[in-house]
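User: Reviewer 2 asked us to show a designed sequence for the structure in our supplementary figure. I'm pasting the structure tokens here. Could you produce the per-position amino acids so we can include them in the response letter?
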């Protein structure tokens, strides 16, 4: 078996060199490709730019060379299929695609090439693939494996569930001899396991890469004079490529106008524009004729511009998955790049108000992910750490050197140790039986019924932080939770003191606590003309 693995590896290296001109594997590519060759089901989770496509393209090329078998690649991005197929064809890996946009005579040409074993990869849209005709036709062929791109779309737990993906579960039955592989850039453990379950994978290899993007510097700020905040970043990257995401089409147009007024080569992109206008905008950006794309979320899926030097979110997106994916479009070439997230309570309430239409379960997920992003934005934990933790990973270092928190750019309180100790002591006095709200009431000396009736006004920690607004104390408690000094447990989110919290009480560990935010005015980009 090791002998076979070594042979496989040598063959993969040769294919990588001869067709793609690459001389090494990216992290986990080798393992993922070996699953492809060995016919072992797998779920491959790599960040955007991690090189997922190669994980199925290279083994498909090898298997086609060996036996003439074809790999079926399921992708939701119809608009990109042609590009992907052209790129493969150009380097000598024979590929084709089928989707609803393909004229019948070309479909016939593709089926002929499939029968003649000419193709290494067949790209298919999910809804095209699961038709009876298509499945009957394919089951007569030698299918090496089925690769499912953007596999999180199969899970309701994911942030981008697509009903047409749900049917892919039947592929296992229709292709009992072909291995199945799912690829995604976003999947916490729950989604990962659900992907495997929904696709009926058999004992899949779970290959999960590191989600950290060390070359990105992350910052998060309350929105306050948004245009000025965007401009600051654009100025640092004069003449370089960047993306500015806005929540609404109107904001996109306003912001693009305003940036142009400042002499920036900026262009708008949103779904309200015609297809031609959008393609023109995208091409101008890719060809460096425009520096900055101001866009809604409609922009970016599948766009591989390696030298995007910054991504600014002028408004907060609706989930931490969206943020990770959109910000992740910066610095695909591995060079230093920056990401700035501007957030406000208004954005939060806007997204929250849109959740009402969802059924209960997706709604709870969407809400959890929205809350996680808001916590991330307002939190005082290293941004790199906070992002990977959401995806069930961790980082060793306590100082990433590449986020506003670790770089000391964020205004913090002067004596976080004493402040943290006061708060944790209060949790201790309350016998770790109350939540954040009540704890903040006690610390700020509230005379509420709940405090007085329990006699908590006689605790030694009562009113200890009465010179701070309750909101500030409440935020600090959340920050202590975020940094692991306190934990919320049970249905009532009761505060408990963790091991780290004990160390804090002894002065062995120090938290980072943010200075209370100054009041931020509701902000619209100012027109310059
Ligand atoms: P993903 O789908 O994970 O976002 P891609 O498959 O689009 O990533 O790959 C991102 C970029 O990295 C592409 O330009 C690709 O050609 C390049 N790439 C992938 N694997 C390698 C490798 N082993 N060596 C060099 N470049 C690679
Ligand atoms: Zn950091």
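Assistant: Here is a per-position design you can include in the supplement:
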């Amino acid at each position: 078996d090791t002998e076979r693995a070594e042979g496989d590896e040598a063959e993969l290296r040769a294919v990588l060199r001869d067709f793609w001109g690459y001389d090494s594997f990216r992290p986990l590519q080798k393992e993922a490709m070996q699953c492809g060759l060995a016919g072992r089901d797998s779920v491959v989770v790599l960040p955007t730019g991690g090189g997922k496509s190669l994980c199925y393209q290279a083994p498909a090329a090898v298997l086609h060379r060996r036996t003439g078998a074809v790999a079926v690649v399921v992708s939701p991005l119809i608009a990109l299929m042609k590009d992907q197929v052209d790129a493969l064809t150009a380097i000598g890996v024979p590929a084709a695609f089928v989707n609803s946009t393909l004229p019948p005579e070309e479909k016939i040409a593709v089926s002929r090439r499939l029968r003649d074993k000419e193709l290494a990869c067949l790209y298919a849209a999910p809804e095209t693939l699961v038709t009876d005709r298509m499945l009957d036709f394919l089951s007569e062929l030698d299918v090496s494996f089925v690769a499912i791109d953007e596999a999180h779309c199969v899970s309701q737990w994911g942030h981008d569930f697509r009903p047409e993906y749900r049917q892919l579960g039947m592929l296992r039955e229709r292709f009992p001899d072909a291995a199945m592989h799912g690829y995604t850039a976003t999947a916490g453990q729950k989604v990962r396991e659900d992907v495997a379950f929904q696709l009926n994978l058999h004992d899949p290899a779970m290959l999960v890469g590191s989600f950290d993007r060390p070359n990105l510097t992350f910052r998060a700020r309350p929105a306050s004079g948004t245009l000025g905040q965007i401009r600051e970043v654009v100025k640092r990257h004069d003449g370089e490529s960047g993306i500015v995401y806005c929540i609404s089409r109107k904001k996109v147009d306003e912001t693009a106008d305003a940036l142009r007024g400042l002499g920036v080569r900026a262009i708008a992109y949103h779904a309200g524009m015609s297809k031609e206008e959008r393609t023109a905008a995208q091409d101008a950006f890719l060809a460096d004729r425009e520096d900055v794309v101001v866009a809604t979320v409609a922009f970016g899926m599948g766009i591989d511009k390696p030298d995007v030097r910054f991504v600014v979110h002028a408004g907060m997106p609706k989930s931490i998955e969206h943020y990770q994916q959109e910000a992740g479009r910066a610095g695909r070439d591995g060079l230093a790049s920056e990401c700035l997230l501007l957030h406000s309570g208004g954005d939060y309430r806007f997204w929250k108000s849109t959740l009402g239409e969802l059924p209960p379960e997706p709604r709870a997920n969407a809400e959890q992910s929205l809350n996680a992003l808001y916590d991330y934005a307002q939190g005082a934990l290293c941004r790199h750490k906070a992002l990977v933790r959401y995806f069930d990973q961790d980082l060793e270092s306590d100082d990433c050197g590449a986020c506003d928190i670790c770089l000391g750019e964020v205004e913090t309180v002067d004596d976080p140790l004493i402040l943290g100790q006061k708060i944790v002591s209060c949790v201790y006095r309350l016998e770790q039986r109350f939540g954040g709200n009540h704890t903040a009431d006690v610390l700020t000396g509230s005379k509420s019924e709940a405090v007085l009736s329990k006699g908590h006004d006689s605790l030694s920690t009562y009113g200890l932080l009465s010179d701070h607004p309750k909101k500030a104390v409440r935020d600090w408690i959340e920050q202590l939770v975020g940094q692991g000094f306190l934990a919320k447990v049970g249905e009532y989110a009761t505060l408990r003191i963790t091991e780290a919290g004990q160390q804090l009480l002894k002065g062995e560990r120090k938290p980072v606590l943010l200075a209370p935010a100054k009041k931020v005015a509701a902000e619209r980009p100012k027109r310059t003309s």
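For the response letter, you might also mention the following. Residues 385 and 395 are 6 Å apart (CA to CA). DSSP finds 22 helices and 15 strands in the chain.
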